[in-house]
């Protein structure tokens, strides 16, 4: 969520409306999902997989992105 929150702050600072703010947050979250694929899960249910979690995108990052995406669609 950190990249999404940063994108929202930036959007608000530039005077964006709620729809655009949520869209920018969803876009930022989507871009960061890919960075979770090579990571070892250390928290949550995926942490039980240990080394087997490497190579899979983080479910928490994915669900955060999906919620932001849907919020942006609904707000439109």
The 3D shape can be described as elongated
Low-confidence stretches: none
**Strand share of the residues?**
under 5%
User: With helices defined by DSSP (H or I, 4 residues minimum), what is the helix count?
Assistant: 3
The biggest beta sheet reads: none
Radius of gyration: 14 Å
Oligomer: single chain
Distance between the termini: 21 Å
Can you characterise this structure?
This protein has 76 residues and is mainly α. The protein has helices spanning 2-13, 18-33, 59-75. Helix 1 (2-13) runs antiparallel to helix 2 (18-33) and helix 2 runs antiparallel to helix 3 (59-75). It is elongated and about 45 Å long. The mean pLDDT is 92.
What are the salient characteristics of this protein?
3 helices; 59% helix; mainly alpha; single chain; elongated; 76 residues
Topology:
Elements: H1 2-13, H2 18-33, H3 59-75
Question: What is the structure about, briefly put?
Answer:
The protein has three helices and no strands. It has helices spanning 2-13, 18-33, 59-75.
């Amino acid at each position: 969520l950190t990249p999404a929150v940063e994108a929202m702050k930036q959007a608000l600072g530039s005077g964006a409306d709620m729809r655009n703010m949520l869209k920018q947050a969803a876009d930022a979250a989507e871009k960061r999902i890919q960075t979770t694929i090579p990571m070892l899960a250390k928290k949550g249910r995926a942490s039980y997989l240990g080394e087997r979690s490497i190579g899979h995108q983080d479910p928490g990052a994915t669900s955060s992105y999906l919620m932001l995406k849907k919020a942006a669609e609904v707000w439109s």
